[in-house]
Structures are given as C-alpha cells and as structure tokens.
Amino acid sequence: MESRIKRTQRDYSLAFKLSVVEQVEKGELTYKEAQRRYGIQGRSTVLVWLRKHGRPGWSGWSLPTVRGVDMDRQGKALTPEQRIKELEVQLKEAREKAQLFEAVVNVLEKDYGVRVVKKPSGKSLRKSSSKG
C-alpha cells in the first residue's frame, strides 16, 4: 500500500508541478490519480497546473485518455474515424479563435491606435546576451 503524504502548497516546486503535468498529459495518470499518488489535497490543484504549465490550449474538458488511448465519454476507445472527427472540431474551434484574435487586434489598431506587435513563430522576443 502506498503511503500518502499530506503536503502544503509551499512543498510544490516548479519541477514537481511540471513532472505531474507531463505525466497527466502523456496519459500515464489521470489528474485524480496524480492527486492521490502525490498527496495533493486541493481538488483542482492539478487542473490549475495543467492550464498554467501544460500544452497551450489545454482545457481539461477534452476527451480523456487512458494510458495513451483516446476514450469517449462512456470510457470506450475511440475509432480512428471518431478521433478524426474530434480533431476536426478542435481545428475548427482553433481557427475561430484565431479569427477572433485577429478581429480584436484590428479593433485595437483602428479604433484605439494601439500598435500590436506579433511575435514571429518560433522566435523569442528576449535578446540573448553573450558573455565572453
């Protein structure tokens, strides 16, 4: 039987949080299993970590995975056709979000005179300092 250690919030290092997030995202654990295994008391603590430190766009409301297999709401494995349909819905939502963000940027620029600089994909805005 696993021993459970009750923890306080200050016990959670960033490395620990990232490790838990990675395990949940890979499907090795559900967020509830992670809570039990690591003695995390807050009901939504792991979900908050997933939203904050997980993959971009992680919402927590997508279909669950069990050990890397995509599952439907009744716990049955998804067929490739069902998975494709789910991904098409997610793609449509992502495109709609992108259009919304573009519209917001246009309003900011036209109506408020705010210049929005878009970060080129794959490049950091931070200047690298080279010390020799």
From TrEMBL:
Record key words, sorted: Coiled coil
Coiled-coil region(s): 77-111
Source organism's superkingdom?
A: Bacteria
> Which InterPro entries is this protein grouped with?
InsJ-like_HTH, Trp_repressor/repl_initiator, WH-like_DNA-bd_sf
User: Sorted alphabetically, which SUPFAM superfamilies does this protein's record hold?
Assistant: TrpR-like
Pinpoint the Insertion element IS150 protein InsJ-like helix-turn-helix domain residues.
Answer: 16-52
Is Amino-acid biosynthesis found in the keyword set? no
Q: Name one GO molecular function term.
A: sequence-specific DNA binding
Question: Does the UniProt entry include the keyword Coiled coil?
Answer: yes
Q: What is this protein called?
A: Insertion element IS150 protein InsJ-like helix-turn-helix domain-containing protein
Organism from which the protein derives = Achromobacter agilis
